[in-house]
């Protein structure tokens, strides 16, 4: 016969949902989110400036390798350079490393661990809140850039809308993978933010430039494989992407990202379950 305390103990899924509900509001209105909202606002500002420059520049003057650059092509290039290569990894680092590390630094982890819920559910719930928060931050930015850039030089919003859906799916996959990886880093490493920044700003860009198997140990290797398939078709932009042709196919990349995300999240939850955290006084 179960005791009242045991009967009232929530399930693992219920615990995850409780932590998710508790953490989402805190993340959305934190100072970190305000800073990162300004970060994702950068591409919108660039898109507005591009509209002004485009209006003042002859269309024939905007060419790459002799091919005219269209609005959809510029939009795809911004997705690749700004979101995939910079914003998504930075969001993953700043939020993912703080899922547990922030609670340790603020000495609030004890209050979460004393609740009658599994420790691993704390990390999983906060991870899902991170994913919802970052998607809510990046979605308006991408949509605004899409509507600002695609109509330029005769681009059709209706015709390019499927590419927008592909872009959003690709970015969500990147946020999920980076968040899971850095969630584990934050649960395991004492100063995770520094380690995360070194990884996304140093390790990943460096190993992607050299042949060998080290690139398989990065999220960017699999994420950038989805870029040409999500981008609008544009001969000029395709010419710029030829240097990154050594990438796996779409199906292997999606499978690798799914396995990486699931494995990293599982290891992170196990780390939280087994590790004893010492709160600094």
What does this structure look like?
The structure is a single chain. With 281 residues, the chain is mostly helical. It has one domain (9-274). The protein has helices at residues 4-7, 12-28, 31-56, 71-96, 98-105, 109-113, 119-149, 157-188, 192-207, 219-223, 227-230, 235-240, 250-274; strands spanning 63-64, 67-68. It has a two-stranded antiparallel sheet with strand order 1-2. α4 packs antiparallel against α7 and α8 (157-188) crosses α9. The radius of gyration is 21 Å and the shape is globular.
Quick rundown:
The chain has helices spanning 4-7, 12-28, 31-56, 71-96, 98-105, 109-113, 119-149, 157-188, 192-207, 219-223, 227-230, 235-240, 250-274, and strands spanning 63-64, 67-68. The chain is mainly α and 281 residues long. The protein has one domain.
Distance between the termini: 42 Å
Beta strand %: under 5%
SSE run: HHHEEHHHHHHHHHH
Average pLDDT for all residues: 82
**Number of DSSP helical runs:** 13
Largest sheet: 2 strands, antiparallel
Radius of gyration: 21 Å
Which term fits the overall shape?
Answer: globular
Q: Going across the biggest sheet, name each strand in turn.
A: 1-2
Return the structural class: mainly alpha
Q: Tell me roughly what share of residues is in helical segments.
A: over 70%
Low-confidence stretches: 1-7, 234-240
**Number of structural domains:** 1
**How many distinct beta strands?**
2
């Amino acid at each position: 016969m179960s005791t009242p305390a045991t009967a009232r103990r929530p399930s693992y899924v219920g615990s995850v949902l409780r932590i998710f509900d508790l953490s989402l509001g805190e993340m959305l209105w934190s100072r970190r989110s305000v800073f990162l909202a300004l970060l994702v606002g950068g591409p919108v500002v660039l898109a507005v400036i591009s509209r002004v420059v485009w209006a003042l520049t002859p269309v024939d003057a905007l060419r790459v390798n002799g091919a005219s650059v269209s609005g959809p092509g510029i939009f795809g290039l911004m997705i690749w350079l700004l979101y995939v290569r910079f914003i998504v990894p930075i969001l993953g680092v700043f939020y993912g490393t703080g899922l547990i590390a922030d609670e340790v630094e603020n000495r609030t982890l004890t209050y979460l661990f004393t609740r009658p819920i599994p420790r691993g559910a704390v990390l999983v719930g906060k991870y899902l809140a991170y994913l919802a928060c970052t998607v809510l931050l990046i979605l308006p930015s991408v949509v605004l850039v899409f509507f600002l850039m695609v109509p330029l030089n005769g681009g059709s919003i209706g015709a390019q809308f499927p590419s927008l859906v592909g872009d959003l799916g690709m970015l969500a996959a990147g946020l999920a993978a980076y968040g899971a990886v850095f969630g584990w880093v934050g649960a395991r490493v004492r100063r995770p933010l520094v380690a995360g920044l070194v990884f996304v700003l140093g390790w990943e860009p460096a190993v992607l430039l050299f042949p060998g198997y080290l690139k398989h140990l990065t999220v960017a290797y699999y994420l950038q494989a989805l870029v040409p398939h999500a981008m609008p078709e544009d001969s000029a932009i395709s010419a710029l992407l030829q240097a990154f042709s050594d990438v796996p196919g779409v199906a292997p990349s999606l499978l690798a990202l799914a396995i990486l995300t699931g494995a990293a999240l599982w290891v992170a939850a196990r780390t939280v379950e087994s590790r004893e955290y010492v709160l600094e006084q």
